Q: What sequence folds into this?
């Protein structure tokens, strides 16, 4: 059997491994497997009630309804039906998933949930019962692991096979945390349904749901703009700890530029995605207060528009050096081929003068407020750079510059940053990487970001590094 499975990194790390219980023992869902970061999370009582985006008298008959997520409580005879005991907690986790999506960025965006009619949704109990539908998995394995294909086949047979639904399944038994499109092409039973399942009821429910944000799936092997960087606050890399979605707007989720797309898996896979456009979510609208924001365009962040050796649109150089889209080379040096961010910018530094590579466009800023410029850099040799913020007034006259400390680049990609308050009369800012004169080397630049540090979510008003 070759289902195209997406096993959670939780499972890979062992954290989501379900212990098989004896036939008579009830499975105990790990309720408390909820992320606590990357910024302070509200108590259950303070999590907003998302509510129902669509309400149907029969949730298996959703033809003509808007695209929406159907939440399922799945059980079998091994542990019995504990729906009444769990339903409100499941609804609260679902509400928290919606809150996490909205709070991840300064865009307003929510999950469309499907509900069934017949319950008083003005009470939380009634809302929870409308939102969460119980389903017995007839072929569930008592005393062993019930595979996701068995769950998908059961749901489809019960009528949960509507194309405008994705199924978010809280398993009350030993299963696998994963997401799957149950198609013949994927080696499945052919029901075609998209299911996100887990017996760990926490951050991995959102993690698995996001895997379904593409017509096939969204992988997480590419969840980095730069190679070998996976340990940062993101629900796709650390679902036990962090609710955050793609804080750099450059891997799979960019609500600020919904025409931008990002590779969803490693080379040679060429599928691209922007989960912010998933029709099972509401359309993202700017602006509210949220954890991440970014003032750059996708091209300015990712340098993906031109082919290797080409001239990176949106950038310019001055002084000692010339730039190109990084030519083919070792994967670790090029941010290329085998990772998302398959292209990067190479600056070929010349010694006769300070060299600058700059984002041509100057994003608007507000005087007196703090901004932070991040970028990822590496070199195959060695050399020093600074990051620079150049502040301009409304007449496009340079007012002042704010430089980072001098950074010695290494053969590993690393994130560097500079943060400063926009001076009086500042109206725009230009981002540059400066290489002091006297050096001859080449460096690679990728994953740029400019944050407006007013989001109120982190200590310094900007996202945490990494
Ligand atoms: Zn996963």
A:
């Amino acid at each position: 059997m070759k289902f195209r499975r997406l096993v959670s990194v939780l499972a890979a790390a062992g954290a989501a491994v379900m212990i098989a219980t004896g036939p008579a023992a009830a499975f105990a869902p790990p309720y408390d497997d909820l992320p606590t970061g990357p910024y302070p999370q509200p108590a259950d009582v303070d999590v907003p009630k998302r509510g129902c985006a669509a309400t149907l008298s029969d949730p298996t008959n959703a033809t003509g309804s808007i695209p929406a997520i159907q939440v399922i409580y799945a059980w079998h005879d091994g542990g019995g039906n504990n729906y009444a005991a769990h339903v409100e907690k499941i609804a609260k986790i679902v509400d928290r998933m919606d809150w996490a999506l909205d709070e991840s960025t300064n865009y307003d965006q929510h999950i469309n949930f499907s509900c069934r009619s017949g319950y008083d949704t003005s009470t939380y109990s009634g809302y929870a019962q409308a939102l969460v539908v119980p389903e017995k998995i007839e072929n569930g394995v008592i005393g062993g692991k019930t595979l996701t294909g068995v769950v998908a086949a059961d749901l489809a047979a019960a009528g949960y096979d509507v194309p405008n639904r994705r199924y978010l399944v809280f398993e009350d038994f030993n299963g696998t945390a994963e997401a799957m499109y149950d198609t013949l092409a994927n080696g499945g039973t052919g029901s075609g349904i998209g299911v996100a399942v887990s017996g760990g009821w926490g951050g991995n429910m959102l993690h698995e749901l996001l895997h379904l944000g593409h017509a096939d799936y969204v992988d997480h092997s590419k969840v980095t703009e730069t190679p070998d960087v996976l340990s940062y606050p993101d629900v796709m890399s650390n679902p036990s700890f962090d609710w955050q979605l793609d804080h750099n707007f450059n891997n799979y989720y960019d609500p600020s530029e919904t025409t931008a797309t990002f590779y969803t898996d490693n080379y040679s896979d060429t599928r691209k995605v922007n989960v912010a456009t998933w029709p099972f979510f509401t359309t993202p609208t700017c602006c509210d207060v949220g954890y991440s924001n970014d003032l750059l365009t996708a091209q300015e962040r990712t340098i993906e528009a031109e082919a290797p050796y080409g001239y990176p649109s949106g950038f310019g150089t001055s002084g000692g050096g010339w730039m190109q889209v990084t030519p083919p080379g070792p994967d670790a040096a090029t941010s290329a081929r085998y990772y998302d961010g398959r292209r990067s910018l190479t600056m070929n530094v010349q010694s006769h003068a300070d060299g600058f590579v700059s984002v041509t466009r100057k994003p608007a800023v507000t005087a007196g407020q703090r901004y932070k410029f991040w970028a990822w850099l590496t070199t195959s040799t060695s050399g020093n750079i600074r990051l620079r913020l150049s502040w301009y007034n409304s007449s496009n006259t340079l007012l002042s510059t704010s430089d980072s400390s001098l950074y010695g680049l290494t053969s590993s990609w690393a994130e560097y940053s500079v943060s400063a308050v926009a001076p009086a009369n500042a109206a725009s800012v230009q981002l540059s990487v400066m290489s002091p004169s006297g050096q001859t080397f080449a460096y690679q630049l990728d994953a740029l970001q400019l944050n407006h540090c007013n989001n109120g979510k982190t200590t310094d008003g900007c996202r945490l590094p990494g």
